[in-house]
Amino acid sequence: MLKPPVDPDLPHRVARSAAATEGAVTRTADVADWLDERRRAHRFEVERIPLADLDGWSFDEATGNLGHRTGRFFTVEGLRVTTGEGPSRHRWHQPIIEQPEVGILGILVKDFGGVPHFLMQAKMEPGNRDLLQLSPTVQATRSNYTKAHKGADVKYIEYFTEPGRGRVLADSLQSEHGSWFLRKSNRNILVEATGDVPVHDDFVWLTLGQIGTLLRRDNVVNMDARTVLSCAPLPDGDGLALHSDTELLSWFTAERSRHDVRAERVPLGGLPGWTRGEWAVEREDGRYFGVVGVAVRAGSREVARWTQPLFEPKGLGVTAFLTRRIGGVPHLLAHARVEGGFADTVELGPTVQYTPANYAHLAGPDRPPFLDLVLGADPRRIRYDTVHSEEGGRFLNAESRYLFVEADEVPLDPPPGYLWATPRQLTRLLRHNHYLNVQARTLLSCLTSGAVRLR
After folding, report:
1. Which of 142, 327, 399, 451 could form a disulfide with 446 if both were Cys (CB 3.0 to 4.6 A apart)?
2. pTM over 0.70, yes/no
């Protein structure tokens, strides 16, 4: 039985949901009180502990790698990254999270009154500054949903692991943070339920527009929800762009081809430039990030108590797309970004993705491109400015200031490694694996949900 290769109505249904700032199930004004009620319903505690007090975790005597006694979950190892050749060669060492299993980030979708609603979860993550945030319906590693931890079942997992339980709207493998994970991917999937769905206490149906309203608030919608929502298709509009899709893909393929990146796992013990103390593994100069330990108590998780290592960045990140209208059509300045943990050398990221404190000692041309333009932007040119947490299951207090900044002064022919593309062009790439990094996907989710509208 033949069918159209693309559902022409789906983008318009998603757009209706993005336009609906009130839902048929829950009022937007009630979500904050509901989240507070879920915080009170469960006990959440996170305490920093010495690395030696990590229960079940230890440093390997031969390699110094940090791992769990079961051999499951993840390990913290060393990474040596080399980019370029000859005079342009650059090398650095760092700890990296090795977690080869593919997790599931899935959101259930269901129509109420003809408008798609998304089933969101109030989920505690030990690294989030506010602990509890809105997450996908399912946010689970394979260790979680196969019960390697011997905990409770993951609710709604069957919709994403059993074929035929619903209609798949989007499904692709997307990377996690390439600076801190080694070739880590998650399955980002939207599934439309075809029957009744029981709603458990920690879950709520919201329209995409309601989620967009919440994305204007600091630290409410978690990273995993943002990356899945970015994959929701939207109408193409007038379809015009500075570069055709083929030109965009050709440029991106050339960027991947020209970057020589070698990422090699090495022992964490004795990693050049890093030291291991009682409380952290960190750089000798105190920059970038450290590896610390925490003890957690969480009443609503599959396991109620545990300890684990977390990566803790040194400062607030700044992540921004520069925007400008070209021929009346909004465009974003994408950056072909190299990160040591990417599976394929380069992914498209925002124009700016840096932690300014790490570059405070640099001046003039040594400063990261466009960073000072964003930091010094006239407030009237800032279309969006919100702080969001990064992955709270592996990072402690990792936050970035996410922005869209108008920059008509940036030329149509930007420096090497940068290209103007429309939001729709970038969103279409999310049908495929490993084209856009997680920071770019966060900003696209703000456009998909209507949290920001470009002029």
Report:
1. 451
2. yes
* Average pLDDT, integer, range 284-305: 87
Query: How do 203-207 and 185-193 pair as beta strands?
Result: unpaired
Helix, strand or coil for residue 197? coil
pLDDT at 144: 66
In terms of domains, do 216 and 252 share one? no
What's the whole-number mean pLDDT along residues 129-133? 90
- 221, part of any domain: yes
My answer on whether 178 and 257 are in the same domain is no
- Predicted local confidence at residue 223, as pLDDT: 98
Which residues participate in the annotated binding site for dTDP-4-dehydro-6-deoxy-alpha-D-glucose?
Answer: 57, 141-145, 179, 224, 274, 337, 353-355, 358-359, 391-394
For all residues of the chain together, what is the average pLDDT? Answer: 94
| 52-87 residue pLDDT tens | 999 999 999 999 999 999 988 899 999 999 998 777
Residue 94 covered by a domain = no
Q: Give the residue numbers of the binding site.
A: 57, 141-145, 179, 224, 274, 337, 353-355, 358-359, 391-394
Q: 210 and 150, same structural domain?
A: yes
Nearest to 108 by CA among 35, 165, 182: 165
Do residue 221 and residue 348 come from a single domain? no
Cβ atoms of 314 and 437 closer than 8 Å: no
Using an 8 Å Cβ cutoff, are 48 and 279 in contact?
yes
- pLDDT range class, residue 449, cuts 50, 70, 90: very high
- Could you give the CA distance from residue 246 to residue 250 in angstroms, rounded to a whole number? 6
357: DSSP letter: G
**Residue 105 domain boundaries:** 10-43+101-229
Domain of residue 361, CATH code: 3.90.79.40
Residues 15, 126, single domain; the answer is yes
Do 258 and 162 share a domain, yes or no? no
